[in-house]
Automatic annotation (TrEMBL):
Gene: cyoA
Keywords attached to this entry: Cell membrane, Electron transport, Membrane, Oxidoreductase, Respiratory chain, Signal, Transmembrane, Transmembrane helix, Transport
Pfam families registered for this protein in UniProt: COX2, COX2_TM
Residue span(s) of domain Cytochrome oxidase subunit II transmembrane region profile: 24-122
Domain of life: Bacteria
Protein's name according to its UniProt entry: Quinol oxidase subunit 2
Transmembrane segments: 46-73, 94-112
Amino acid sequence: MKASKAVRWAASLPMLLLLILTTTGCTEKFVVLDPKGPIAEQQRDLIIISTVLTSIVIVPVLILTAIIIWRYRDRKGRKAKYTPGWEHSTKLEVIWWGIPIVIITILAIITVKGTYALEPSKPLVSDKKPMTIQVTSLDWKWLFQYPEQGIATVNYVKFPEDVPIRFEITADSPMNSFWIPQLGGQMYAMSGMAMTLYLQADEQGAYWGSGANFTGKDFTKMYFDVHAAPQDEFEQWVSEVKASSPVLTLDGYKRLSEPAASDIRTFSAFPEGLFEMTVTKYASSHNHGLSWEDIQKVQIEE
């Protein structure tokens, strides 16, 4: 019997270790802990500080739990002192209530300061002018519009390094969550709303972005490529897109917004005010939203 228990314990430990590794993502790189921008750096610091502070309570509790289970287990010759009449210890009460209260207070202060410092719509401090990119979540793809450059892309976004990027985010589909892990946290994309998120890449490179909400059959394909490049390379890319890509029309956008996954696509132009039309289409429940016929009429009148 003792041998069989030992065998079961020996077999369960590797399985437990494998489960921990697979569920925590240890088999892949921790991109959240490898920030490439000022927002992601501050968020990483908050994660590390919070983990260390909570470990002050969690680690001793886990260790003591194992010790208590082992020391007071039912076995012959057990010498652990049994005191069923014990009910109070001021010293222990102060320890197991005082330490958590102090830690929670410190966490609260850090969290409040971090929340205000990392307000998503707060412009980043920089001597460079922010660049605006309008993001629309579709089923099951991402549309990026560059109002200053006059181009649009699908599932691919490119911008200059060291330049604050003002993402204006909405949805023409079920609610999703816009996320570039190495640049910053998530921001919800919701129909009828235009959310603002400031991010910046401190160095050039290729990053990964995705939708972080379940939105149906092909939600796992809602990822996009992110590329931070030198200013001259970005401008050259814009020129190439303008010269070699088709125009995104209203009819083309209507087809694009139909539920389906998509590869990377580029457009040399898009209807003026398309992002605003998408937002206002869902902005009111009193029949003030624009239908496709209304949008086309507005476009013709302009």
